């Protein structure tokens, strides 16, 4: 995997799912989301304050170590 990339440095390609770090009124954490149309979207929510992102690893393939 790569290191975390601050959103102030650059954003991922639109529509590409990535790991994100976020903060909101109730919590902070890590999730999976994509950036599109000037906002971040996850499976069930929209993230207001994303601080950094990281590319996701390649999927597991049976027989590989």
Q: What would a concise description of this structure say?
A:
This protein is mostly beta strands and about 60 residues long.
Can you offer a commentary on this structure?
- The chain is an all-beta fold and 65 residues long.
- Helices cover 0% and strands 45% of the residues.
- The protein has strands spanning 5-6, 18-23, 28-36, 39-41, 46-47, 49-55.
- The chain has a 6-stranded antiparallel sheet, with no helix packed on it.
Topology readout:
Blueprint: E1 5-6, E2 18-23, E3 28-36, E4 39-41, E5 46-47, E6 49-55
Antiparallel strand pairs: 1-6, 2-3, 2-6, 3-4, 4-5
Task: Estimate the helix proportion, in percent.
Answer: under 10%
Overall shape: it is: globular
Q: Strand fraction band?
A: 35-45%
Q: Structural class, judged by helices and strands?
A: mainly beta
Order of helices and strands: EEEEEE
**Uncertain ranges:** none
Strand arrangement, major sheet: 1-6-2-3-4-5
Main sheet?
Answer: 6 strands, antiparallel
Number of strands: 6
Radius of gyration: 13 Å
Instruction: Provide a count of the helices.
Output: 0
């Amino acid at each position: 995997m790569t290191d975390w990339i601050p959103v102030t440095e650059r954003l991922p390609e639109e529509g590409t799912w990535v790991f994100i770090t976020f903060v909101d009124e109730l919590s902070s954490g890590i999730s999976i989301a994509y950036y599109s149309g000037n906002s971040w979207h996850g499976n069930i929510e929209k993230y207001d304050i994303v601080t950094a992102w990281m590319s996701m690893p390649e999927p597991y393939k049976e027989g590989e170590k």
